[in-house]
Amino acid sequence: MNLNLKIALLMLLVSPITFGQTKSDEWHLYANSRQNYFGVAMANGQIGIVTDDTPLKTKEIFLNGIYDGSPENGISRIVRGIEFLNLHLSVNNQEIQSNNIDNWSQVVSMKEGTSTTSFTFKDLVSINYTILANRAVPFSGMAIVEIIPKSDVEIMASNYMIVPDELKEAKNQFRVLKDNQFIMPVFGTTAKTLTGKYTVSASTTFLFDGNKEILKQTEKNEVGFSKKLVKGQKYRFAIAGGICTSKDFTDPLNESERQAIYALQEGIDNLLQRHKNAWSELWNTGDIQIEGDLDAQQRVRFALYNLYSYIRPGTRQSIAPMGLSSQGYNGHIFWDTELWMYPTLLALQPDMAKSCLDYRSDRLQKAKQKATVYGYKGAMYPWESDDTGEEATPTWALTGIFEQHITADVSIAFWNYYTYTQDKVWLKKEWDVLKQTADFWVSRVHKNQDGSYSILNVVGADEYAQHIDDNAFTNASVIESLKNTIKAAAILGEPVDARWVEISEHLLIHTKNGITQNYKGYDGQMIKQADVNLLSYPLHIIAEKKQIEKDLEYYAAKIDPKDGPAMSSGVLSVLYARLGDREKAYDYFVKSYLPNSRPPFGVFSESANSNNPYFATGAGAMLQAVIYGFGGVEQTDSGLKFNKGILPKKWKSLKIIGLGFDDKTITIN
Fold it and tell me: Which of 175, 438, 499, 517 has its CA 20 to 30 A from that of 608?
């Protein structure tokens, strides 16, 4: 093991900012300190509700696929929704606030997709506040409050909504609806996004275990009730409702009210059970179980929990680098999906993976438009994509025009879905994505005098290098995507363009002194992230063991140790595991998450030097280290191949549930 790597890992293990769970099990993450707090998104693929350390309050809510203009940077940005689950609570006319509670703790249940905050208020009450974004009912959420009085008390509880700055023209209303004997009080807020592109509506009501309390609207535009509680008798109620937008509904206000009315008729326990059942189904069809290393088990399952939280099958949505946890990178879609998150979803939740491809297929025409705009043929996918499918990268960033490997990454992801499913009907339907992206590269390459081909003036996976020629990963991804397209054409009986064959066989990848060059003229500069090493995995361009070893040894030392993103270590772990080096594979597996973990739950940050969790891209790379490295799983043209695998010394066994087309379970002892 490299001495510098050993020292770095030792420093991380003793660092005060590292995540450690003292009271824990494989399904629950506990927090007992509010210092340096980074919350977790309770998300269901449609909405993400971020936890806060403030009692009875959420931090933010994010709406998948909803974008509007951002005045700060002049481009589109994922929209924050109306926070609809917040509560003001007074006990004996004393309001509970962030600074007057004791015994605060919080637990995230990964198995059930809930977050529960517990605390005491003076010598009067103990309170539990549980929030969830309902996995079974995608546009809805619920906050469940349990109060245990330590003496006879009177409470006043009121629901209030927070409208974020990027929404305008907010209006609220409280209506008591009636249908025969049913009385249905509904509280709601409606607003518009900054440019007026979308209308956003949130509506709630209160659910009670016993007799329904009379709800009243206060002067502060809140809605609530008062109740006398008896010492020692637990009292439970909930705020439930939904948030809808005009992207999905012609009348989002009425639909959000229906979400609240539906919750009212279902009741707390039915809604909660449906939510739990939906999560249980996900875990039963795709899970990773590690015996002998509780810390690794928690982190791996937490990574899975977050990936599963950020997408829903059948929605034709994709996943942004920060999922539904923040506005990081404006919520845009990058190669982070296809290269880093998608492979894990493809292995364990293929219906989720397919949604990512549907997102790209729906925007093929915009990719063709972009190619035309820059004088090329075929389809040129944007580096950053929003709901429109047009280029959404800030205009100052060269990546938006020149980081073009994204087009090959998309094509490769489509081919890998076919190899996983062997579904020729689907391949025929999506053939145009493969063909149009291949045609783009035909128009993009430069033919050299010796008959070889180059791709000039690009930004590669190593974004520190700009205006370079023949970037290794760009050229290699083009080679692989063209070869895949040729194979797809043969399967479907489609004509093969001879130029696809010629370019795939003669596109240059440079070497120097036995090392694959990051780009033409590369001379040992620091790199942002793995580039050349990606040619061995996930690509299949470099397969010779000696070359893989040389490139690994050379480039592992070139990656920026301070600001390099988390993904590189995951890839290095896969490669070392496949080479049979369990020690280095494990070291890089740990390095793929430990420097980036933030308290109290260990949410991923993008780099060791940043605080922008949750970085789902890094989680995807870490999970690939487990599945495609230690697990021995390999993506081939015939589907998933299950090799022997290799275990870190600390692990007693590794079980991966739900792999492949037939939901195979593999166990490595």
Answer: 517
